[in-house]
Recover the amino acids of this structure.
């Protein structure tokens, strides 16, 4: 039985001009630049963290003898916990971790509790001096912390609350609240007002409208504000030095890490403390990262 199959025509080899065309050259340069930038990014971000982790699992004698060792030995990896145990137990980092968690979580909760209704009021409600308040939110944030640090130190000393964790929480909240209001106000402006008007017509109060309509649509913004606030409270050291130095039991992790930065303490302990203070931020970022792309349409359909 005869077939109508046509013979396959062999592919024509690309000519020299086609191989060196402008489009191919630009694509090749683009690919090369992409991998170059990826390598530079890993070198400047991932490698310092790896080096910190590398030093934290090695003993100080090996670090002094082989300062450029890139990979710890098997015995050092098996005994990786020694520096961490010394930092957590001997230098009381477990207490500092608890203090930092309490301060950071409480600061995030209070900041969001005030920032969400405040940003909604500035965005949707009409009242006198509204433009002035909108600009004032950002203006307050422009003052550097050192400007208000000394007056706050004097006030806290006179009130007798210097050295307490609730006092430092109020300071952190006053620093994070303006930028939280500004970020949420900018995001609330992108939410259609018709959704909120429909909820108000159905009998919802303003607070219920915020809870049922605004917050589900603002999950990315709220997550960003929460992450930003947590990072500020977790890593802040200026006000911690001013208010908590004289009460070691109230120290946060940055103050504890500063205690390790002395000639008497091995560098490996300092690196272990740095890993301890860094890991929660990385874990928190990956936890919140899945929320940053959700909530854009959640709650928009009435049901």
């Amino acid at each position: 039985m005869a077939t109508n199959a046509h013979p396959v025509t062999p592919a024509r080899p690309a000519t020299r001009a086609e191989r060196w065309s402008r489009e191919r050259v630009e694509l090749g340069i683009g690919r090369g630049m992409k991998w170059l930038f990826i390598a530079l990014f890993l070198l400047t971000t991932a490698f310092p963290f790896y080096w910190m982790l590398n030093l934290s699992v090695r003993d100080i004698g090996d670090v002094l003898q082989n300062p450029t060792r890139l990979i710890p030995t098997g015995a050092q990896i098996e005994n990786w916990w020694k520096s961490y145990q010394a930092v957590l137990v001997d230098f009381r980092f477990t207490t500092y971790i608890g203090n930092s968690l309490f301060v950071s979580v409480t600061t995030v909760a209070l900041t969001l509790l005030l920032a969400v209704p405040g940003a909604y009021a500035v965005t949707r409600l009409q009242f006198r001096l509204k433009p002035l308040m909108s600009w004032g939110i950002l203006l307050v944030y422009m003052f550097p912390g050192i400007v208000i640090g000394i007056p706050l130190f004097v006030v806290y000393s006179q009130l007798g609350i210097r050295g307490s964790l609730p006092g430092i929480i109020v300071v952190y909240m006053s620093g994070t609240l303006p930028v939280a209001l500004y970020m949420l106000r900018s995001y609330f402006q992108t939410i259609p007002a018709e959704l909120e008007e429909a909820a108000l017509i159905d009998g919802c109060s303003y607070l219920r409208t915020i809870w049922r309509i605004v917050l589900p649509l603002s999950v990315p913004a709220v997550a960003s504000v929460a992450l930003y606030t947590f990072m500020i409270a977790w890593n802040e050291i200026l006000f911690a030095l001013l208010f908590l130095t004289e009460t070691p039991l109230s120290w946060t992790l940055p103050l504890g890490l500063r205690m390790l930065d002395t000639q008497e303490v091995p560098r490996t302990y300092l690196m272990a403390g740095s890993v301890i203070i860094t890991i929660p931020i990385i874990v928190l970022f990956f936890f919140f990262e899945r929320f940053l792309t959700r909530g854009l349409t959640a709650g928009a359909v009435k049901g």
Summary: The chain has two domains: 22-80, 86-289. Residues 295-303 have pLDDT under 50 and may be disordered. Residues 22-56 form the longest helix (35 residues).
